[in-house]
Amino acid sequence: MVEGLEKKRKIEEEWSSIYASKQSLTRADFPPDFTFGVATAAFQVEGACDEDGRGPSIWDAFSHAPGNICDGSNADVAVDQYHRYKEDIELIAKLGFGAYRFSISWSRIFPDGLGTKVNIEGIRHYNNVINELLDKDIQPYVTLYHWDLPLNLLESMGGWVNEHILKYFAIYAETCFSSFGDRVKNWITINEPLQTAVNGYYTGVYAPGRREHSSNEPYLVAHHQLLAHAEAVSIYNKKYKDKQGGQIGLVVDCEWSEAMSDRLEDRNATTRRLDFQLGWFLDPIYFGDYPETMHEKLGDRLPKFSERHKELLKNSVDFIGLNHYTTRFVCHATDNREDNDFYRVQEVERIAEWEGGETIGEKAASPWLYMVPWGVWKVLNYISMRYNNPPVYITENGMDDEEDDTSPFHQMLDDKLRVSYYKGYLAAVHQAIKDGANVRGYFAWSLLDNFEWHLGYTKRFGLIYVDYKNGLTRHLKSSAYWFLRFFKAEGGKNLKLD
Ligand code: PNW
């Protein structure tokens, strides 16, 4: 198939002429109040899995069950940030980032998830982290839920498939607002509800690894996450926001989808694809219901919102967090895969490679990740157009290298491909801002190499290399130095990006 290639080359040509004018971009070219940060998530970095009263999460159980993690590893120790947070925060400060997005482990606060007894040791730990950050002038951006559900909530009530979970999430969220909100001014309720729905309940490659009821559970799980988000925001707005003066949002993930051709059926398929990623979560918030395309394709499989829920969800964000990594071409497709197949229902096909070997962009290590800088420019403009230009933070953006213990150390540290990824993607963010998109901040994923879910430690997303064989020591990669220069050039504008 060669369809799409001509279009791809045209877009690349347009993009390269824009990019040519952005070769010496520095921090000073972004608005002064624009936030630059780095991101991690508790389960991927903390370790200390049974210390200080932490209860088990679904990811502990999932990663310990044979066959779920490709290198047979787990995150019992991960990169030990629980003990090394001071060193890591020192590194964030040194590099010049002004914000750190991290997540709180729910089962450190409520070990069995039930919300009856707060674990003081958990509160103490995050107090220490937050105070250390503020001490170094780094703003905490705190995610309440980044996939590590207390195991008991899965075992005793089925986790996200059960509506009762809303109550427990609300208690947990409120405990965090009241304990940390005097110092935390930026809250994220849930990270990527899409991935929990699809990979937790359709492909089964993420915890809790369910596939059995994939024709309806993903939609139910998404529904309950949306409602849990809305309940938490309503508590925040009613009881804490005025007093504490912070903001709260939801993090969604979306690859960009580019129509394969100008044919109506391909353009419609592209809209559907975006609806099944972004509209699924943002339409209920901005328009009060799921996208029409989802109603059409799913019928009764799509849960319904009550009037109270619609009210609660409406405008329940101060900002959108966008995790963005990659892009696909999309065309209309009907094939005869299973009826409950997630993509079959959408009637779309996603294309990243063509016969003859041309790809949509350079490949990273994760099989789904291609480097396509113009995609972030397009997705930001799409969000601005569809949702009336809401404030957006890019809460994750990055690429990974394959773990390779045969490569010399210096080669692993000299991550040229990552430097070119950040250079390109930041230029594209800059262009979107110039076009008028209301982008407020940007977080690189990730601060350091870490436990990449079902791919274990085989992928390295960090700006900082973690030496797993030598005491988890941290070493700056070229990309970390690149960011350092990008920030240092502020005002001077005399430093080149590369
Ligand atoms: C994000 N996809 O997940 C998560 O928020 C991080 O915890 C994770 O480490 C990071 O991206 C890198 O994978 C995603 O297949 C996982 O499109 C997969 C996709 C997108 C985001």
Automatic annotation (TrEMBL):
SUPFAM superfamilies, A to Z: (Trans)glycosidases
Keyword Hydrolase: yes
Family matches, as InterPro entries: GH (IPR017853), GH_1_N_CS (IPR033132), Glyco_hydro_1 (IPR001360)
Keywords: Alkaloid metabolism, Glycosidase, Hydrolase
Listed GO biological process terms: alkaloid biosynthetic process; carbohydrate metabolic process
Coiled-coil segments: none
Record's keyword annotation contains Hydrolase: yes
GO molecular function: beta-glucosidase activity
UniProt xrefs under PROSITE patterns: GLYCOSYL_HYDROL_F1_2
Family that this chain belongs to: Belongs to the glycosyl hydrolase 1 family.
Name this protein carries in UniProt: Beta-glucosidase 42
Originating species: Sesamum alatum
